[in-house]
Amino acid sequence: MNIPYFASNQAATEALIAHQLDWAGNDIPQITATYIRNDPAHNHYYYPAGSTVTLWFNVSPSAPDGRTDCLGDPAFRRVVSSAINRQQLSTLGETGFEAPATSTSGLSPLQFSFLGNFANNITKSGSTASQVAAAMTAAGYTLNSSHWYQVTSPKAQAATGLPAGTVCQFTIQDPVAYSDYAEDMLLISQELRAVHIKVSSLGVATGQWNANIATRNFDAIIRWGAGGDNPYAQYENWLDDPANTGGSTNFGSYINPAAQNDLVSLAAARPGTAAFQTTVNKLATIMTTDVPVAPILYGADWDVYSTLHFTGWVTAQNQYAYPGPASNSIAYVVTKLKKA
């Protein structure tokens, strides 16, 4: 086995086309024209929905822009989430391979049987400027002379911990090498700025991004979820107190005792029971009202493979493991391969 390093999606795509790679896990725009048609007998892809991609907020005041970002206020986070045009992200950022998120619960398509009353409660095209204005006014924010929303009322001051007159501004940070996330980041910042929420984008190296996530050195990031068919893994990833996980998950530093109690209850309940669904509903409510993360897309399990040298890959007809080379099932997939 040879596991090479490529600095970008483009470099990995070029290696795939040249048959220097047998297996990769990246988004290839216009994949049929770019990759499949070069060798339709051997070049394949399988992109099933596997997790929920979110705009993940760092709600800690120690975030880089913690003195201005207003992300400590759940009402502000709700407005930010509502203003995102998820259909545009799906069409442009993900070239149609990741569907726009439709539920504030954060549950992925594999978990849709647990949606309950939270199905289809997201407007995929995003809120209008007038709807954003009404919500921001109700939450205690007003436009300043430069037409950016600022903290105004005692209500907003208490929710954010910021003084009156603070312009709400934060930065979305993602790797330049993740070409789809980089495009999504730019689109979200443009969409929010269009409704007078001051948001910037910051493209960084992948290694730096991972280091910044681990040290909470970000305001907001676009990142995949935990996936799976049990909502517990997904919610634990976003909501578990970092003190319980050694800081390995819940990168946004969101802390809610009610969520902790619900996670314990969910872990003890059996999927399919009334107790399990009741607890999922409680966690979905927290996701909807507090918005520790904003669900934006149903993330694909990126899986691009060639049968020129090996067969036995995961396919839609043979789903024996996670399809892409991005999980702990890699070793299992390798044991299933045979020389072509």
Tell me what you see in this structure.
By secondary structure, this protein is α+β, with helices and mostly antiparallel strands. It has two domains: 9-47 and 301-339, Periplasmic binding protein-like II (D-Maltodextrin-Binding Protein, domain 2), CATH 3.40.190; 49-300, Dipeptide-binding Protein, Domain 3 (Dipeptide-binding Protein, domain 3, Roll). It has 13 helices and 13 strands. It has helices at 9-17, 31-34, 74-83, 86-93, 129-138, 154-160, 179-194, 206-214, 231-239, 242-245, 257-268, 274-290, 330-336, and strands at residues 23-24, 43-45, 49-57, 99-100, 141-143, 149-151, 169-175, 198-204, 220-223, 293-300, 304-306, 310-311, 338-339. It has a four-stranded antiparallel beta sheet with strand order 4-10-3-9. Strand 5 (141-143) and strand 6 (149-151) form a beta hairpin. Helix 4 runs antiparallel to helix 7 (179-194) and helix 9 (231-239) packs antiparallel against helix 11 (257-268). The chain is globular.
